[in-house]
Amino acid sequence: MRGAAERRTGPDAMPVDALTRRYAAALYAEAAAGGGEAAVFNSLEVIAGAMEAEPELATLLKHPGIPDATKAEVLVRLSGTEDKLYKRFVELVISRGRPQVLAGCAEAFRQLWDRDRGVTRARVASALPLTSEQAERLAEALCRLTAGEVHIDATTEPDLVGGVTVRMGDTLLDGSLRTRLKKVAETLRAH
């Protein structure tokens, strides 16, 4: 299917810094060379979710009294994978004392993977939650607009009043009632 609708229930994905991007790029290059992008991404996503849900995990990973091998083993077991590349990556990150990059690594990795697969992520905000049918129709329309595959990350923003806003990269499509009302108010003030 060219358009896929995905629901995002939490805040936008974790911001990705330059260090995290470098680690993710190196990992992605290795995973792509071996065709293991999906397995590595799934493991990274599990860890990112665990770190978001349990902030104590980040504290544990920084604790100097816990051996690096134990920290790495916890992350490998938590991900539930036997992937050797992922295991080596976790061991490297932990041994270099940079566990903080793990939280944003899934997002940075996904950005690279999406780029190579021709996938565009559309962050859609609406006043009310989109139904599955609405999300699917919107994804199909955006596919036609981009001539590629589009995945929707949907959020709810009641202050939009009605309509939707769509952000794809640097492009913002604003079909919100809030913006339309602002334009009407500006027009009335100008006269």
Structural description of this entry:
The chain is α/β, with parallel strands linked by helices. It folds into two domains: about 100 residues, Orthogonal Bundle (Peroxidase, domain 1), CATH 1.10.520; about 70 residues, no CATH class. The chain is built from eight helices and five strands, in the order E-H-H-H-H-H-H-E-H-E-E-E-H. It has a five-stranded mixed β-sheet. The longest helix is centred in the first third of the chain and has 17 residues. The chain starts with a strand and ends with a helix.
CATH class of the largest domain: Mainly Alpha
**Low confidence ranges:** 1-13
How much of the sequence lies in strands comes to 15-25%
Largest sheet: 5 strands, mixed
* Count of domain modules: 2
Question: Architecture of the largest domain in CATH?
Answer: Orthogonal Bundle
Mean pLDDT: 87
Number of strands: 5
Write down the overall geometry: elongated
What's the helical proportion of residues? 55-70%
Going by helix content, strand content and strand pairing, the class is alpha/beta
The whole-angstrom Rg is 20 Å
Tell me the distance between the termini: 49 Å
Question: Which strand order does the major sheet show?
Answer: 1-3-2-4-5
Compressed to H and E, one letter per element, the order equals EHHHHHHEHEEEH
Q: Let me know the CATH homologous superfamily of the largest domain.
A: N-terminal domain of the delta subunit of the F1F0-ATP synthase
CATH topology name of the largest domain: Peroxidase, domain 1
Counting DSSP H or I runs of 4 or more residues, the number of helices is 8
